[in-house]
Automatic annotation (TrEMBL):
Keywords: GTP-binding, Lipoprotein, Magnesium, Metal-binding, Myristate, Nucleotide-binding. The keyword Metal-binding applies. This is ADP-ribosylation factor-like protein 11. It comes from Knipowitschia caucasica. GTP binds at G13, L14, D15, S16, S17, G18, K19, T20, G60, N116, K117, K118, D119.
Length: 168
């Protein structure tokens, strides 16, 4: 089972949104314990001496999304990664997120949306993404959205520090 000491954080999002890149980047330079396995990657991020998060990156392909709920026991925060350059798939991302948030197991669990790939010139604004994902009408949980680049390592420390604060 999961370690009960470290908060479990689930990283979800469509395939190609950049979850694996982001997890690998965020664990670089920190104590890490990654085990790439079929279906998911997991690693522990040490924010400081007292605070760690166990991050689960689970597969985002359509056929795998039905498995997301099996990772939801004990989850303290949800991270939903969006490719902010992929306008075409934003409705699909919105639908996937809606389904996640409707799961009883994650009722009230805080949500961090990461608008990834902000290093690219054609990335959408935070406002546009928030609107399309219907974040602005969420009332039953804490949520935040932050732009980041998993590839360049931009915005990730802030994002996971915020995630940790949202859990408290
Ligand atoms: P996953 O399917 O969600 O795990 O996505 P991957 O981590 O495999 O990334 C999908 C593609 O997007 C790869 O080609 C990555 O190199 C690219 N990618 C991921 N993050 C970024 C980013 O922040 N900026 C740019 N420019 N490309 C990214």
């Amino acid at each position: 089972g999961h370690s009960s000491r470290t908060p479990q954080v689930l990283i979800m999002g469509l395939d190609s949104s950049g979850k694996t890149t982001l997890l690998t980047q965020v664990l670089t330079g920190h104590t890490m314990d990654t085990s790439p396995t079929i279906g998911f990657n997991v690693g522990t991020l040490d924010l400081d001496k007292k605070n760690s998060l166990t991050l689960w990156d689970i597969g985002g392909q359509k056929t795998l999304r039905k498995n997301w709920k099996y990772y939801m026991d004990d989850v303290k925060a949800l991270v939903f990664v969006v490719d902010s350059t992929d306008k075409e798939r934003l409705p699909e991302a919105a639908e996937a997120l809606k389904r996640v948030l409707s799961e009883e197991k994650v009722k009230g669990v805080p949500l961090m949306v990461l608008a990834n790939k902000k290093d690219l010139p054609n990335s959408m604004t935070i406002r546009e993404i928030s609107n399309q994902l219907n974040l602005t009408v969420l009332e039953d949980r804490l949520w935040q959205i932050q732009a980041c680049s998993g590839q360049r390592g931009l915005g990730l420390n802030q994002a996971f520090t915020s995630v940790n604060k949202m859990i408290k």
